[in-house]
């Protein structure tokens, strides 16, 4: 099954794939220096054209990220993710770098505004029956600066919830075998939620979900969702 056959419908997908699940920063105490997180992730994506679903894709991915407190609550967070879908004969590689500032209000509430830049490379194969062409290689490469805000609430010591919002601005280069190349841009939000529980001072488990409703003015784009489960080492 082909993943995409329109550059417009690919733009919001690229936004989702590099931003989805990019949630979570420090615990709610000041002595944290950083963390290392490894997570499997699952993505479900509906491809929309003129507001109608024309294709669906499910994809497993592996993701890792590193967070470090460089100065008094200023965190630097690189991340990387790779996924593959055999049915679509394609996959995804994404990487990003984010800077965020952690602002606690009390023992229960905190916020973390941030800014970052992501890179995404998506590849697949498509059919173009109108031109009697099948199995064409299609690639999307995107650079996407984004703004973010995380809100933390601690139910009790060692158990917290994080609500996340990101807004991305994407510039995408699309190439289709035998049909040429194009450039375009889009923008849109991603909403996320994460639950995290501390097993010990150095280890946590978390479960996160994200939802993307980004569309173009013509209502081309995606309705995407993703989940992850991660093991986290704090230092």
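^ Assign residues to that structure.
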């Amino acid at each position: 099954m082909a993943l995409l056959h329109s550059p417009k419908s690919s733009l919001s997908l690229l936004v989702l794939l590099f931003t989805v699940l990019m949630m979570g920063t420090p615990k709610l105490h000041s002595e944290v220096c950083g963390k290392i997180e490894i997570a499997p992730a699952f993505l479900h994506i509906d491809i929309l054209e003129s507001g109608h679903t024309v294709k669906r894709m499910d994809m497993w991915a592996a993701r890792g990220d590193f967070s470090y407190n460089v100065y008094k609550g200023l965190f630097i967070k690189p991340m990387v993710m790779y996924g593959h879908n055999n049915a679509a004969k394609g996959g995804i590689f994404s990487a990003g770098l984010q800077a965020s500032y952690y602002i606690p209000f009390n023992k229960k509430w905190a916020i973390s505004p941030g800014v970052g830049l992501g890179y995404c490379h998506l590849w697949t194969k498509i059919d173009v029956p109108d031109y009697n062409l099948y199995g064409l290689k299609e690639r999307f490469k995107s650079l996407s600066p984004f703004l973010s805000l995380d809100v933390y609430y601690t139910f009790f010591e060692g158990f917290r919830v994080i609500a996340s919002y990101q807004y991305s601005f994407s510039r995408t280069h699309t190439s289709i075998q035998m049909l040429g190349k194009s450039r375009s841009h889009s923008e849109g939000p991603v909403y996320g939620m994460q639950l995290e529980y501390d097993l010990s001072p150095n280890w946590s488990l978390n479960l996160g979900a994200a939802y993307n409703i980004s569309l173009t003015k013509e209502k081309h784009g995606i309705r995407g969702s993703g989940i992850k489960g991660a093991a986290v080492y704090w230092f």
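The chain has a mean pLDDT of 81.
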